[in-house]
Amino acid sequence: MNTRRLVAWYIAALLGTFIAISPQQCEAQNRISLAQFDNWIFQTAGRDEAQCRKGLEKKIELQFVRIEQSTPLTESQKDSLRLAGQGDIKRFFDRVNQAREKFLRMEQKDNNLHINEAYQLASPLQQELSMGIFGKDSLMAKATRHVMTDDQATQIQERVLEQSRAMMEMQGKVFIATISRGMAMTAKQQRGLQERFQKKIQQLAKLPDEEERGFVSRSLFILWLVEIIGEEDFPHFDAEQMVVVKRLENRANDAKPMLKLRGLLK
After folding, report:
1. DSSP secondary-structure letter at 135?
2. What is the pLDDT of residues 70-92, one digit of tens each?
3. pTM, to two decimals
């Protein structure tokens, strides 16, 4: 094959490749099905609606187990809570169906080329499943507060406080271990902080809400760290360590209004 024929053959082959990839095929690559849309919603809860429903039904029963770690439930109380939990499930799937309808209208309107918009419809529902649909504002939570006797409510609250304090103590240990690496704390300094953190946590009349516990607890820990280091009987911090403390002091002062607003600081 001479050079001209070889060049002609190469150009023809290249054009054939371009022609083979039609605009319709490019669009098809950008399309998603309703099944894929559902998969985005349910990816952390069984991948499809049926599996998700089964999982949520099981979580209702697990709520009973959690409550009965604090106080026994009567069958009548369980029936009321189960009905409320099923109401939460229905409300969640009502929102899912609304999102599906919007997705299908969008697909009919513009051939579903705006994948980001579709994902924005699915993402809040996916997050709701991940966080749990039986939170403090759920029908089940409200029903729990309604059907509990005063003694049961007290026992549940004591259990919740005990678990929250244990969680916060663990977070405090992680905070101290993390910040000690940047400040080169001695073992004595770390132990001193852990002991004082534990005492302060036990003295808290109110604890951070579960939804924002990480951020709020860290703000409290920074404030406590700055206060504790200034105590006369606390192990001495050297000049390099105090440079870090001074930076943290500014963050502690910035956090005070937020902590006061949440009732965690007088």
Report:
1. S
2. 999 999 999 999 999 999 999 99
3. 0.66
